[in-house]
Design brief:
The structure holds two protein chains of two kinds. By secondary structure, chain A is of the alpha/beta class. Chain A has a single domain (11-288), classed as Divalent-metal-dependent TIM barrel enzymes (TIM Barrel), CATH 3.20.20.150. Chain A has ten helices and twelve strands. In chain A, helix 2 (46-57) links the parallel strand 2 and strand 3. In chain A, helix 1 (20-26) runs parallel beside helix 2 and helix 4 (119-136) crosses helix 5. Chain B has eleven helices and seven strands. In chain B, a hairpin with a 6-residue loop joins strand 5 and strand 6 (204-208). Chain B has a three-stranded antiparallel β-sheet with strand order 4-5-6, with helices on both faces. In chain B, strands 1-2 form a two-stranded antiparallel ribbon. Chain B has a two-stranded antiparallel ribbon with strand order 3-7. The radius of gyration of chain B is 24 Å and the shape is elongated. Chain B is mainly alpha-helical. Chain B has a domain at 132-260. Classes of the chains: A alpha/beta, B mainly alpha. Chains A and B meet through helix 2, helix 3, strand 5, strand 6 and helix 4 of A and helix 1 and helix 2 of B.
């Protein structure tokens, strides 16, 4: 099965409450918006009021951050039902979740925690992706994580693992280029080699976000997937090389913490759009200028 | 299952049990079988992400408590709360329902015994913000009823309606905290009862007059108008029904008036 996202192959932006009014008033020329599913799981109120209005004019992606698809235990059925409600209410062009776990024994950790890449976890993740796709009645996209640790017990690479999930379930992939750069730096491999090994034909969406630099105990670079600043120059460069390999794909600017004014997000989206348009030189001038 | 050096590979569930335990207990080492290059500092990124993101979630739900006690105290109280009452659901919009009760018991809160009530008011606001939408009804729905059916009429509470009764001036404390430049006078000898409701997009907080909390509480528990009036009159000598009805209808606290 090919990836069936119907998002336009343009730059989109993560929708934040701070920008609801500006977007409704100005109808900025971005390709689409993405929301976190969990922020729209209340019964009513301002989030739904604004999203209903914004959704009328823009394609929408719904991105889950709490389903814990990588749980060793069963998926939370109540949460799956809530996702079904949100997806039914907004009928988004894409639905995505993470290759990670966040709940254990009914405690929610609010972080995307890493998995060992083994036959055992492959079976578990595939079973859960099947269950999500059956419940929602549609294909989902699964996102590569940013990780800070790896497991001795992993028997395959992340890219191999993701391709196996795609082959078993027919899901698509969400390629987070910042996550690739963060993980590659943290575990000291080539981010470009990761992209070249990635099953790009199954990618339905790309994420770009900012990361925070830190150091580990040995003084080596440790990058944190913070989503609190502009996309780094190295990540733009990797994105440019990815698009050269994959062709244009729907691309999201994610900025979830220390959310800036709308104009700053719009500029980041415009920079992504220029790369999608194949105009790299101008991007570099725009970023460095 | 055995691999290479004879170490046993834990099941995914067992690995996550160890990982989760180490996340919650900073005294424990990073869980096996992380790679050796994955030192403690790296595992600490996860510990830090969990704590910081949940403290942030509480700070955004309880801004008045945060301002009243300052960052250092708030972060300490929030960390203790997270450790004792971690979220049970990935929907964090309404995380912190029991933060008020927790603050009532939190030892160093003794200098500010009203903190729990301010937290309950803030949680009621958050609950109202995300409650189901409904158009409120006006007082004419009631004044149009024949007199004989008034007693048995049901005032259906708006889905967002909440009530916070306090021994402290909870509304004034909250207002003074969210609007520090404003001219709110806080008289600590004067208890206040708060009505919280979201008739449209904005959450409203109103002080209820004497007997008001009993009356609204009775409506919320399903009492008919006559019963609610009786309970409120028994509870407060100066209970003024006309003024209270004016206030609650004007606030948008009634979704429907059903004659029986």
């Amino acid at each position: 099965m090919n990836t069936q996202t119907t998002l336009p192959a343009r730059a989109g932006v993560g929708l934040k409450a701070d920008h609801y009014e500006t977007i409704l008033a100005d109808r900025p020329g971005v390709g689409w918006f993405e929301v976190h599913a969990e922020n729209y799981m209340g019964a009513g109120g301002p989030p739904h009021y604004y999203l209903e209005r914004i959704r009328r004019d823009y394609p929408l992606s719904i991105h889950g951050v709490g389903l814990s698809i990588g749980s060793g235990g069963p998926l939370d059925r109540a949460h799956l039902e809530r996702l079904k409600t949100v997806v039914g209410r907004y009928e988004p062009e894409a639905f995505s979740e993470h290759l990670a776990w966040s709940t254990h024994n009914h405690t929610f950790f609010n972080d995307l925690l890493p998995l060992p890449y083994t036959r055992d976890s492959l079976a578990r993740v595939s079973e859960h992706v099947d269950q999500v796709q059956q419940t929602l009645g549609r294909q989902m996209l699964l996102e590569n994580p940013a990780t800070y640790v790896t497991f001795e017990t992993s028997t395959m690479s992340e890219a191999e693992f993701l391709l196996d999930v795609v082959e078993r379930t027919g899901c698509g992939l969400l390629l987070d280029i910042n996550n690739v750069y963060v993980s590659a730096t943290n575990h000291r491999y080539s981010p470009l080699a990761y992209i070249e090994a990635f099953p790009l034909a199954h990618v339905g969406e790309i994420h770009l976000g900012g990361h925070a630099p830190d150091k580990d105990n040995d003084g080596r670079d440790l990058l944190i997937d913070a989503h609190d600043r502009a996309v780094a120059e190295e990540v733009w460069d990797l994105y440019d090389k990815t698009v050269a390999l994959s062709g244009p794909l729907p691309t999201l600017i994610e900025w979830d913490n220390e959310v800036p004014q709308w104009a700053v997000l719009f500029d980041q989206a415009a920079a992504a759009q220029r790369i999608l348009n194949g105009d790299r030189g101008r991007v570099h001038r725009a970023i460095s200028g | 299952m055995e691999i290479g050096g004879g170490c046993t590979v834990p099941s995914l569930a067992e690995l996550q049990r160890r990982f989760a335990r180490a996340l919650r207990d900073p005294g424990l080492p990073a869980p096996l079988p992380l790679r050796s290059s994955s030192d403690g500092r790296r595992f600490d990124v996860y510990r830090n992400n969990v704590t910081v993101s949940l403290v942030d979630a509480l700070r955004s739900t309880f801004p008045a408590v945060h301002r009243l006690v300052g960052e250092e105290y708030f972060a300490a109280a929030a960390r203790a709360y997270i450790s004792e009452h971690p979220p049970r659901s990935p929907v964090l919009l309404l995380y912190g329902e029991t933060f008020g009760e927790f603050l009532d018991r939190f030892p160093s809160a003794s200098g500010a015994p009203y903190l729990g009530d301010v937290a309950r008011l803030e949680w009621a606001r958050m609950n109202a913000l995300h409650a189901a939408d409904a158009a409120p009804t006006g007082i004419d729905g009631l004044s149009g009823l024949p007199e004989e059916s008034l007693e048995s009429a049901a005032l259906v509470p708006h889905p967002s309606l909440g009530l916070v009764a306090s021994r402290w001036p909870v509304v004034s404390l909250w207002q003074a905290s969210v609007d520090p430049g404003g001219e709110v006078e806080v008289d600590m000898r004067k208890p206040e009862q708060a009505l919280v409701v979201r008739p449209a997009l904005m959450v409203e907080v109103r002080r209820l007059p004497p007997g008001g909390a009993v009356f609204v509480g009775a409506l919320l528990s399903g009492c008919r108008l006559g019963e609610a009036v009786q309970q409120a009159a028994d509870a407060a000598e100066q209970f003024d029904l006309a003024m209270l009805l004016q206030l609650i209808f004007e606030a948008g606290a009634v979704a429907a008036v059903n004659p029986i």
